[in-house]
Each structure stands twice: as structure tokens, then as C-alpha cells.
Design brief:
The structure is a homodimer. The first copy, chain A, has about 120 residues and is α+β, with helices and mostly antiparallel strands. Helix content of chain A is about 45%, strand content about 30%. Chain A is built from three helices and five strands. Chain A has helices at about 5-15, 45-65, 105-120; strands spanning about 20-30, 35, 70-75, 80-85, 90-100. Chain A has a five-stranded antiparallel beta sheet, with helices on both faces. In chain A, a hairpin with a 2-residue loop joins strand 3 and strand 4.
Chain lengths: ~120, ~120
């Protein structure tokens, strides 16, 4: 199986295993989509660019605030969560979850998905 | 008691009640410190500017990603957490916690502190 197909499969499995996860995408550090399972109304290019900008600003903030090298940026909005985690070197995993999501469970599943991604890339 | 003194008291109480919280600051939307309980090695002006930039970028990302209006940005680094939450209108509360922190407890205490801040401002 091509690596892209394997990555897409891993993302789909993450979403089907946790119904509160609505969307996910693997994005390169420079803001390009590598694999994705995003709903149609979300504009991939903008989302990818924004996620990589947020992670890189988060990286500077983490260092500046003495929190060490960055592992995750989480945004909580009124209607849900957006999670950006560092995946294989040079990549980040973006996950969108509903407000009803159990954060502990999401962190666990996302962590496992990151391990799978590291094996594929 | 002057409002600034009240705010400083609330921030000190947050930190003394939860030992894993190392520092906190109330920052205006435009990146100026209103009250703070930050360690000396942290450069207030830079930290305040960076926090407000992160929250405003988070705000755009939350809208773009369909997560509604922003409530919180959390950064997890290798050695701890940085949390930025919207407090009274036009302000944000920055909280730095160690890696050992129980996130559930931190969210609870920070939420209560935000309520106190809203009453003061």
C-alpha cells in the first residue's frame, strides 16, 4: 500500500474509533496537506497554513515561557476543540473534536495515531 | 483595596492554592500586563505580547475551523503547560504550569479565577 493510502487509513481509523473527532489532517511544517480526512466545507489550504503558523508561534512561546520544546497546541472554542500535535519530524497532526469530547480519551487516541504515523513516514 | 491589588491577590491565591501553577498574569488584548505573578527570569513585556498574539491567532483559527468563539489556547511543551484563557472582556489570563500538573484541576482553578477577575474588572 502506498504511504499516502496508509496515512489516510490511519486518519480514518482515528475518526471512526472516536465519534467526537470530526476531522483530522497530517500537515507538513511548511503548511502543506500530506493526508487528510476533513469535511468538505473546510478549506484545506487555509487550514493547513493556519495550523502550521499556530504551531510555529506556539513553539516560540513554549521556549520563551520555559515550557521546553513544543508537543501540542490546543484551542478550545465555544463549540469544540482544535488540536495540533507534532507528529513525525517536520509534520503535525491536526484534529478537530466536538465540545462533548472527553479530552483524556482524545489525547490518548491522538498519541497512538502519532505513533502509527511515525512508523509510516 | 485598589483593583490592581485585588487582581494581584487573586493571582497569588491561584498559585498558592495549586503548587503546580508556577506563574500567572492578566494581560490586555493589546498585549499589556495588567497584573502579574511571574518569576523574575520571565520578561513581562515579551510574554504579554506573545500571549496576546497567540490568542488572537487562536481566535481566527477557532472561527476558521468551525470551533466557535475562542475560550482557551493551551500549549504543551516537554517541561510544562502554558494556558491562555479569555477573562473579562478585552483581557486574557496567562497561566504557566509544570508537566506534573493535573490538567483537570488546573482548568477548574483557572475557571474560578476567571470568574473572580470578571467581578473585579
Amino acid at each position: 500500500m502506498a504511504r499516502i493510502d496508509e496515512l489516510n487509513k490511519v486518519l480514518r481509523a482515528l475518526q471512526s474509533g472516536t465519534p467526537d473527532i470530526e476531522a483530522s489532517a497530517l500537515i507538513s511544517e511548511d503548511g502543506l496537506i500530506i493526508a487528510s480526512a476533513l469535511p468538505q466545507h473546510i478549506e484545506e489550504v487555509r487550514v493547513a497554513g493556519m495550523s502550521s503558523t499556530l504551531l510555529s508561534l506556539g513553539m516560540r512561546a513554549a521556549t520563551e515561557l520555559g515550557r521546553g520544546s513544543i508537543e501540542q497546541v490546543m484551542i478550545r472554542g465555544e463549540t469544540g476543540y482544535a488540536l495540533m500535535v507534532t507528529a513525525a519530524p517536520g509534520t503535525l497532526l491536526l484534529v478537530l473534536a466536538t465540545k462533548a469530547a472527553r479530552l483524556g480519551l482524545i489525547f490518548l487516541d491522538v498519541g497512538r495515531t502519532v505513533e502509527l504515523i511515525k512508523k509510516i513516514l
